[in-house]
Amino acid sequence: EGVDLYLLPEPFSGLIAGEFGPLLVLSCRVCLEEKPIKPLSCCKKAVCEECLKRYLSSQVQLGQADIKCPITECSEHLDETTVLYNLPHDDIIKYKYFLELSRIDSSTKPCPQCKHFTTFRRRGHIPTPAKLENKYKIQCPSCQFVWCFKCHSPWHEGVNCKEYKKGDKLLRHWANEIEHGQRNAQKCPKCKIHIQRTEGCDHMTCSQCNTNFCYRCGERYRQLRFFGDHTSNLSIFGCKYRYLPERPHLRRLVRGSVC
């Protein structure tokens, strides 16, 4: 006689099939909820998809291209595949831009208006004085914006970069113009490229030279023991907009007396 065989379901083992391999039901290190999670490849810690997406999106909004692992005790950076897979479409575009910007050398810069990249090619012959003045003049092939490659600003006809940076009203108006409640751009105090912030705090990290600076005042972030840092109201390194912004002389007097 024939014998009917039945396969009994195996007891739940904590494994769920995922797109990139099995997912373990683990406790997320961020929200502490138990969910199907694929551990991070760098440290094998558990961070759920929702928390990872939220973290990555916040880092991209801050202009980060080399994103650290969200686990504080891990010093590794997340691989590009993990980042791209967990970002929404709009953030992917920003992330790829920041990534490209972090990999280029000083001979390539983005257009200050539309971010189209231009490479400046030096010629072997010595240019005439007339041509020397205009050799850094760039017209963006994408948006037709005319800008200076040397100082990464709108083109300043008849004025050298040093004079232009000292007080040209066009630069001040363009950089300080308020759109959607914030200034249009801020220059990195080290490499001088313009940084535009979409959202987030005032602490910025330049994607080209990794300099930390304040988006509001443009100064570098500095910190010394006993003297405070850029976020301290009474520190000599504090942002001028944090304490008595309308009374600079009194602000310097008070901060100097505290030290």
UniProtKB/TrEMBL annotation:
Residues 24-243 form the RING-type domain. Keywords: Cytoplasm, Ligase, Membrane, Metal-binding, Repeat, Transferase, Transmembrane, Transmembrane helix, Ubl conjugation pathway, Zinc, Zinc-finger. One of its GO terms (biological process) is protein ubiquitination. It catalyses: [E2 ubiquitin-conjugating enzyme]-S-ubiquitinyl-L-cysteine + [acceptor protein]-L-lysine = [E2 ubiquitin-conjugating enzyme]-L-cysteine + [acceptor protein]-N(6)-ubiquitinyl-L-lysine. Pathway: Protein modification; protein ubiquitination. It is an enzyme of class 2 (transferase). Pfam families: IBR, IBR_1. Transmembrane segments: none annotated. Its EC number is 2.3.2.31. One of its GO terms (cellular component) is membrane. Its main location: cytoplasm. InterPro entries: BRcat_RBR_RNF217 (IPR047551), E3_UB_ligase_RBR (IPR031127), IBR_dom (IPR002867), Rcat_RBR_RNF217 (IPR047552), TRIAD_supradom (IPR044066), Znf_RING/FYVE/PHD (IPR013083). It comes from the Eukaryota. It is a single-pass membrane protein. Gene3D superfamilies: 1.20.120.1750, Zinc/RING finger domain, C3HC4 (zinc finger). It is found in: Cytoplasm; Membrane. Belongs to the RBR family. RNF217 subfamily. E3 ubiquitin-protein ligase which accepts ubiquitin from E2 ubiquitin-conjugating enzymes in the form of a thioester and then directly transfers the ubiquitin to targeted substrates. Mediates the degradation of the iron exporter ferroportin/SLC40A1 and thus regulates iron homeostasis. This is E3 ubiquitin-protein ligase RNF217. It comes from Ibidorhyncha struthersii. The lineage of its organism: Eukaryota, Metazoa, Chordata, Craniata, Vertebrata. The gene is Rnf217.
